Amino acid sequence: MRLKVRPTDTHESARDHFQMTSKGNAKADNPVEIHTLQWLEQNHPISFNSPIRTTGFEIIWIVEGTGKLTVDCQEYVIEPNVIYCLSPGQLRQFSTNGKVEGYYISLSEEFAYLAENKQDFSFLTLQNSFGRNLQIIHTTKEIHHELEDILMKMRTELSNCFMLRTEILKGLLKIFIIYLSRKAERQDYVNVPEKDIHIAERFIALLKIHYTTKRMVADYARELCVTPNYLNRIVKKVSGFPASYHIQQHIVLEAKRQALYSGLSMKEVAYELGFTDYAHFSKFFKNNSGMNFTAFKNGSH
């Protein structure tokens, strides 16, 4: 991957960026990263060229150039003036066609919530709740300059130990996210009460935490103080599919991530996902994905 270097990038040094692990993600004590794609390609090419499991929120802003972004086995064609937003736990791989300019931003979940206004971040936290893998935002010339100015201010704060640095970063991040949220595609729920949407969103949040130990709708209905039938009905009203479908698909998605990312055998993946009988897991995977695990792992997908 060859990336064009702007004049300002040639003076970047290690102190201008938080260190990254060998897998390309931010270390636990470094909750914010802001890089140009050019710097990232030169210093950590593996972070885009290889499949990476995201540990926090990632924002990839393509200013110029084209390429391909694969997120959870779904392929997207990248293009100029577009921002791609990923959530924690997703599997992504990035490649480019020739020269590309842009920015990479990584935020830990903890730091993201420092912005204090959950509504501002809802398009990030809930973007892949009901089948949407990726939030895609198209930028205009007007918003481009505003966003770039905020990023430059954030990078200045990151490269120095100014007083109240975290507070300033928190405020700048909030403004940046608000700009993005204005342009984000939002899910419209027609004739769905707000309380039903809230229950459906809480179900998805619980599913992401307990999918290895709770595979029955009744498990989640109990947590949410509703009946299984009611939960299935609400989730279907909001997403188009019942709660049982989302449970099955989330487990299959995680199995695919493990197959592509971890290198574990089918038996090991089954164990990681809470299946004591790997033959049962094999049947579950095929019934819900349309192919057997070995074929998927070997690249037949």
UniProtKB/TrEMBL annotation:
Q: Where is the composition biased (Basic and acidic residues)?
A: 1-18
The record's listing under PROSITE patterns reads: HTH_ARAC_FAMILY_2
Q: Which InterPro entries match?
A: Homeodomain-like_sf, HTH-like, HTH_AraC
Q: Which residues form the HTH araC/xylS-type domain?
A: 201-299
For whether the record's keyword set contains Cell membrane, the answer is no
Keywords for this protein:
DNA-binding, Transcription, Transcription regulation
| One Pfam family in the UniProt entry | HTH_18
> What is a single molecular function from GO for this protein?
sequence-specific DNA binding
Q: Which domain of life is it from?
A: Bacteria
Give the region (Disordered) as residue ranges: 1-25
State the protein's name.
Answer: Helix-turn-helix domain-containing protein
This chain's source organism reads Xanthocytophaga agilis
